[in-house]
Amino acid sequence: MSIVLDLGELGPADLTVGPSALSELMASLHVLAEPEHHPEAAGWTARAAAAGPELRDELSVFAPLWARYRCRLFFPRTVPLASSLDEELAAIAALPVEDFVELVAPGVLGTNAQPVPPARELRAGTAAAEDYARRCLRRSYARGELARQLVAAPLELRDRLLAVLRTADTAFFAEDWRTLRPPLEDHAREVRRRLTILPQPSAGGTPVSLRSPADVLAELLPTAARVGPGERIRLDKLQIDEVKVSPRPLVLVPSARVWPHLTVKNELPSCVVVQYAARGNAPAGQLTLRDLHHRLMALTSPARMELCRHLLGEPITTSELAARLGSSEPQVSRALRTLRDAGLVRSTRDGKLVRHRLATDVIQRLGHDVLATVAR
């Protein structure tokens, strides 16, 4: 399962990179709402919760908007990007009511598997609004209540949401953002440098970029890969979609808090947005779904599990393993190859001998890797 971004006809000038305070605030609120999914941020979560205990009830009301689906309202809608959270919140305050409803309604429902009526139909008393509210309620009581308020009084809901975001900014985010923003801006500058257009002497001075947008995305996103033909990138997610970006610009939003999630927002005609964990804010060696599958499948065999128990101690040769297990060396070699290909066994040469040992650090991480890969 994956999302494929078709970047054909997209030039370096069509790619915007930069942090967004509002998107980072949303990612932070997601961590606060679902701390069990983000054990790596436990220390920050405790400090942020202690800084704004009075926010707890209001944040729980709006939590569906920054759950896994992520409401489109919190992502850049135009380029150039806003320079501050105040500017982004002012833009929300200035939205026409139908535009606000259009952006928020899918986030309240929290899935793209079901269609959301156009904003003009989501008015109190209409059949479309009542059906929409029922569908949200079936997903959760919190979503049902938000849907009811959105339909009945969208401007009041907008003012209440803005008040919550401003209070969260005062309580903990403003101080956090002062620390997070500089490295994210440095990261964005480095990405823009990779896309810099230089003259090509061999082509008579024709400008060319150092790397194509597809090359840059493949380098930026650890679980992304180029797929041919053309300028296409496959993003490893538990979704299936193909997004043609051009003629829209692509906006890349690096984040310090979004890991392990990778978010693609394709709803608006103005731009496509990808929010991702900037390097240095995500563990190295993130697994793809295929890698995770290989590791789990490698451990489903009782024979390979028995072999792992012997590999847990000192390094051991294939012949000694065969003698311990009462198996032939070819059988043991095949089992070792499966475990090694999955990254669960490391083999080192010692003169004429090859010794094998269980990669215990990989086994220990597997539980967290499963959660991180599924959450992406």
What's the structural blueprint in terms of helices and strands?
Layout: E1 2-6, E2 15-17, H1 21-33, H2 42-51, H3 56-62, H4 85-93, H5 97-109, H6 127-139, H7 141-152, H8 154-194, E3 197-200, E4 206-209, H9 213-220, E5 224-227, E6 232-236, E7 241-244, E8 250-255, E9 263-265, E10 272-277, H10 289-298, H11 302-311, E11 316-317, H12 318-325, H13 329-341, E12 345-350, E13 353-358, H14 360-375
Parallel strand pairs: 1-7, 2-8, 8-10
Antiparallel strand pairs: 1-6, 3-4, 5-6, 9-10, 11-13, 12-13
Low-confidence stretches: none
**Roughly what is the average pLDDT, rounded to an integer?**
88
Q: Within the largest sheet, what's the order of strands? A: 5-6-1-7
Radius of gyration: 25 Å
- Rough shape? elongated
What order do the SSEs take from the amino end to the carboxyl end, as H and E? EEHHHHHHHHEEHEEEEEEHHEHHEEH
Structural class: alpha/beta
How many distinct helices? 14
How many distinct beta strands? 13
Proportion in β-strands = 15-25%
Gap between N and C termini: 12 Å
* Helix residue percentage: 40-55%
Largest sheet: 4 strands, mixed
